[in-house]
User: Which sequence fits this backbone?
């Protein structure tokens, strides 16, 4: 059976150690976490943790059952389907020689990114979107020289009914 990428989101109590318990569950059972994001929600007593992992469908069912049993976990969902809005943030430090600056600016505008820092020989670019969009932008910037990269990992929310 093939492994697929899954995006799991969980609503948890905003307490110390909750993220460590969740990630410990994954590590203890041999599941890899590709990305993990956590932050408080609109309710300061709760946080949302979003994890991207690769696993077989029966493994995902086991993961979901095990996470639901953890204390401090309020709700867990598999956000892999199309009913979710999924985005990622990337900060990219790219070499920006004077001859390359117009081309870099054009590429950034095409991807609806923005330059958030300018140096003598670099730009730091901010871009949000799907993972494929960020990967495509990185591919176009690679010839100029990507010096540093920070990616948030995927964040996801289910779409509300219309």
Assistant:
């Amino acid at each position: 059976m093939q492994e697929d990428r899954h995006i799991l989101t969980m609503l948890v109590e905003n307490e110390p150690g909750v993220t460590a318990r969740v990630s410990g569950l994954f590590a203890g059972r041999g599941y890899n976490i590709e990305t993990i994001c956590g932050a408080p929600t609109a309710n300061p007593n709760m946080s949302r943790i979003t994890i991207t992992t690769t696993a077989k469908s029966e493994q995902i069912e086991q993961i979901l059952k095990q996470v639901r049993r953890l204390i401090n976990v309020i709700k867990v969902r598999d956000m892999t389907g199309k009913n979710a809005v999924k985005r990622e943030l990337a900060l990219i430090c790219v070499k920006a020689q004077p001859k390359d600056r117009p081309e870099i600016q054009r590429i950034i505008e095409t991807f609806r990114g923005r330059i958030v820092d300018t140096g003598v020989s670099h730009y730091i670019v901010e871009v949000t979107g799907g993972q494929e969009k960020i990967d495509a932008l990185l591919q176009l910037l690679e010839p100029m020289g990507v010096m540093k990269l920070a990616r948030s990992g995927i964040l996801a929310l289910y779409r509300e009914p219309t």
